[in-house]
Write a structure and sequence with these properties.
Elements: E1 8-12, H1 17-28, E2 32-37, E3 48-51, H2 57-71, E4 76-79, H3 94-119, E5 125-130, H4 143-163, E6 168-175, H5 181-189, H6 193-202, H7 212-223, E7 234-237
Parallel strand pairs: 1-2, 1-4, 2-3, 4-5, 5-6, 6-7
């Protein structure tokens, strides 16, 4: 995979999980890659690391501009920074709703509008947003999280329409339940972590969690210049959860 040779990419939330897997894959494919994260300390060369909170517009603009200046421009933005949330519509107060919306939706808005002036100067400009199966499937105990990811999918389509004629493609990936640090923390808090993991695996037709590397591969596909005719697309990476209805296994 050498489609990214000479390109410059920025990955938000790139210090762990899907973001780090994506940053490393893009770098291995030839891109120069900068990571923007609240805590970029785990990031190692050849990745470049910049600290910023996506809820702080001034910090995001400064970090994106510094990253673009350091890289010599910007061709690809991966909007991956996000937080999880549990509960029904009754279980989170207004403060938590505002916090999660601020990170998961407005965080992408801030990074995108900071990056767009740089992306417009690229011949291979692409934005990929990390969305979720929660945008298209009703999952229990995920009301707030699902609301933010539904907004991300709608935002992706609107951005794709707004920026297509400027030469900027915009797509999103919709992972199923992925084996990430957040899921690890969720499982650790469960009364029976093994049983909870088995339940999460069982609801995906493939019978296992999605890996961060698999989501990174889908992100790289959408960001690649080889996908130049693909925009306004939501790519499911969910072990078949969105579209398949397998019959139960019987003895």
């Amino acid at each position: 995979m050498s489609d990214f040779e000479g390109l410059r990419a920025l990955v938000t939330g790139g210090a762990s999980g899907i973001g780090l897997a994506t940053a490393e894959l893009l770098a291995a494919a030839g891109a120069r890659v900068a990571v923007l994260d609240l805590d970029p300390s785990p990031v190692r060369p050849p990745l470049l690391a910049f600290r910023a909170d996506v809820t702080d517009d001034s910090a995001v603009r400064a970090a994106v501009d510094t990253a673009a200046d350091t890289l010599g421009g910007l061709d690809v933005l991966i909007n991956n920074a996000g937080v999880g949330a549990q509960g029904t519509v009754e279980d989170n107060d207004d403060t938590e709703w505002h916090r999660v919306l601020d990170v998961n939706v407005l965080g992408m808005v801030r990074a995108s509008r900071a990056a767009l002036p740089h992306l417009r100067r690229s011949s291979h400009a692409a934005i990929v947003n990390t969305c979720s199966i929660a945008a298209t499937a009703g999952l229990p105990q995920r009301a707030l999280y699902s609301a933010t990811k539904g907004a991300v999918q709608a935002l992706t389509l609107a951005m794709a329409a707004d920026h297509l004629r400027e030469g900027v493609r915009v797509n999103c990936v919709n992972p199923g339940t992925a084996d990430t640090p957040w899921i690890g923390r969720l499982l650790a808090r469960a009364p029976d972590p093994a049983a909870e993991r088995a339940a999460l695996e069982a609801r995906q037709p493939a019978g296992r969690l999605v890996s961060a590397a698999e989501v990174a591969g889908a992100i790289a596909y959408l960001a690649s210049p080889s996908s130049g005719a693909t925009t306004g697309t939501a790519l499911a990476v969910d072990g078949g959860m969105q579209g398949l209805r397998l019959r139960p296994v019987t003895g």
